[in-house]
Amino acid sequence: MSISTEFLRHPLRTGAVAASSRWLAAEITGGLGLERAPVVAELGPGTGAFTGAILSRLAPGARLVAVEWNPRLAEGLRERHADDPVDVVRGRAEDLAEHLPGPVDVVVSGLPWAAMPEARQRRILDAVLDVLGPDGRFSTFAYAHAAWTGPARRFAALLAERFGTLERGRVVWPNLPPAFVHRASSPLTPGGSVRSGLFAAAAG
């Protein structure tokens, strides 16, 4: 099942017409310390454009949990990576913590943020923060042509409210459409201090 087919079937829940390119996959997975991460989560893996790039960077014994809402895409991903260290879960990004055995070191997202209402953007970002520890890292992308739109600018502002360190990567021009990566680290509490994470707080 291709991204373009799913976009035609369900245009409101599929955020892209074409799968992300290998160039964007390399950009979104770089600089995150995936090589040292025991557990990684991926939101909205779709056809797995980023999944393979994540798996290629993981150390032996590390595990990836991929959360995908679309049942066809989730099943296709399970079949394609049946022999790889990845657990494909059909579920909502807002419920990320329910699908994890504990905290994760990195969250990589392929979700269509600019297509979401603000309330859902907030819920998912809060779910991401809840599973990250103080040294957690988050990576996602945005299309360059839509960066000026209200939803995209709002999403960038929400990131700034929740992370102490933000980096906007270069535009990946070979991608269709061209896109850039948001990298975020140092998760914050609403008061602006470093966040311990839901799992860490529960353990304490």
What is the element layout, followed by pairings?
Blueprint: H1 3-9, H2 22-29, E1 39-43, H3 51-57, E2 63-68, H4 71-80, E3 86-90, E4 104-109, H5 118-131, E5 132-143, H6 150-162, E6 163-168, E7 179-187, H7 198-203
Parallel strand pairs: 1-2, 1-4, 2-3, 4-5
Antiparallel strand pairs: 5-7, 6-7
Main β sheet profile:
7 strands, mixed
Number of helices: 7
Helical proportion?
25-40%
Instruction: State Rg.
Output: 16 Å
- What is the terminal-to-terminal distance? 44 Å
Unreliable stretches covering 5 or more consecutive residues: 1-17, 200-204
Number of strands: 7
Arithmetic mean of pLDDT: 87
Instruction: Specify the overall morphology.
Output: globular
Strand content: 15-25%
Which structural class is indicated by helix and strand composition? alpha/beta
Give the ordered list of helices and strands.
HHEHEHEEHEHEEH
